[in-house]
Amino acid sequence: xxxxxxxxxxxxxxxxxxxxxxxxxxxxxxxxxxxxxRGKGTKYLVVVDGQGIPLGSHTASASPxxxxxxxxxxxxxxxPKKGPGRPRTRPKRVIGDKGYDSDWFREALESLRIxxxxxxxxxxxxxxxxxxxxxKQRNRIERMFGRLKDWRRIxxxxxxxAHTFMGAITVAAIVRxxxxxxxxxxxxxxxxxxxx
Length: 196
Known about the structure:
There is one protein chain. The protein is globular and about 45 Å long. It has helices at about 1-10, 70-75, 105-110, 130-135, 140-150, 150-155, 160-185, and strands at about 20-25, 35, 40-50, 55-60, 95, 115. It is α/β, with parallel strands linked by helices. Strands 1, 2, 3, 4, 5 and 6 form a six-stranded mixed β-sheet that branches.
């Protein structure tokens, strides 16, 4: 969280858009491993900012549906400010796929003053309007998952303890954020500002 605070202070985090998704990680045994059609595994849910830097995440058994675990992920977004004040917890918009199409989830986001950008399912009675141009950027979270799964320890879970596995994901996410910072420096988006 301290690293995210430094990135936020330097203006690197993009709070305008955030993306939410989950991925299945195969596992043999341990805490938080559940059975699915794909076999035993863990589900890793994450919210990333507009640049693909993870803001909040949650691991759970692979058995429950992703939408039932979303509240825990949204509540995990807490980026502390330097000095006094409450941590930042709300991006302006959350972009997700059709799997997150639910009236209660849309209402929960709107009650937090977060704009949902989620297309409706094909069987939905009332069509839902969403920003199609913003939705096209959703590949950023898929690319972030691809980069995290480059790490063998994350692509297949070998850890029995859930907190050890989450620690490995945290290290990989920090490396991913450092790569985003380096890219921002090289492209001139940061300029001469101090980078944490």
